[in-house]
Amino acid sequence: MIDLTPESVLPDDGASGTLVGRIWRPDVDGPAVVAVRDDGVFDVTSAFPTVSALCEQDDPAAALRAMKGERIGDLAAILANTPPDRRDPAKPWLLAPVDLQVLKAAGVTFAISMLERVIEERARGNPASAEAIRAEVVRLVGDDFSKLKPGSEQAMHLKQVLIEQNAWSQYLEVGIGPDAEVFTKAPTLSSVGVGMDAGLHPKSTWNNPEPEVVLVVSSRGAIVGATLGNDVNLRDFEGRSALLLSKAKDNNASCAIGPLLRLFDKSFTLDDVRKMDVALNVTGSDGFVLDGHSSISKISRDPTDLVSQTIGAVHQYPDGFALFLGTMFAPVKDRDAPGQGFTHKRDDIVTISAPQLGRLVNRMRNSDECEPWTFGVGALMRSLARRKLI
Predict the structure, then answer these.
(1) pLDDT at residue 137, rounded to an integer
(2) What CA–CA distance (Å, rounded) separates 191 from 343?
């Protein structure tokens, strides 16, 4: 069971920043865009039918502050009603804070992440051989790429050395080569929010959370704010073949985003993201506890570089996109037998947190046990049209 309160979810400075979210309103049978403020939760859908539309404003934070909106209630009551197994369907609950944005993710953006991907590839989904391979890769290339600029002359020299040692990998290519790995994480509108169940493919036996910062970007390529995300990953699927990336990444409820989107303003900027530490805690019903972290300051590619490699003359996003920045977290702590590493178990509670973004909390279940995703783009358009919002 997950207990959500404003104190356990909001950023350390509470609602003093410009916070936007989405709720489900049973009284109108549809989603609403809301501003979360000290004095409550305010529906601003009449001005901004979608979060995407708000993010298209020249100054989204100023636009949101200028809109008073309709007070829906207290954040505490909405949060308490959000977990699916205790929800009153006649009362509002919180949703993921993005809607029409395409859900994108950057991979292999940290040295330790790159190392683990090489291990996945060479272990071919077998966790028993991972530790020996990890030691071998460290011996060959080391594990500190934080000062190595991808695509630089030094990086290309390292690439040639690794090829000669038969240690080159497709993951090292996107880790230190000129082109970043950017893929589509999940379909538009499919992400789950704070308090929801997050999904694992029932056939996976080796998987892990990926605690990340998620940037929200307009159709013009402007980075307008940030939130937290869990890029749930199936290590055994992707380890068998990189061509199974879509099965490893995109399953029902496998994309968690929240709790709220914090728009950039005087209190919070992209430079704050660049210095941000993201913490991870996994607590199992078996008493197992895993703690980890990811420091954006150690990222190999600047967030603006990742955004520019996602949008531009060769690819447009008319409704904007949300971009997971990747993680340096490496899930190597043994959970069961020595050498077997970490994998999720049913009912694990995963908490991803950062002081300026709050806490994203989800319970892990098999994807076929999570709430089915039934409300897509067509349903959203029909809902907004019925309410005369578009």
Answers:
(1) 64
(2) 22
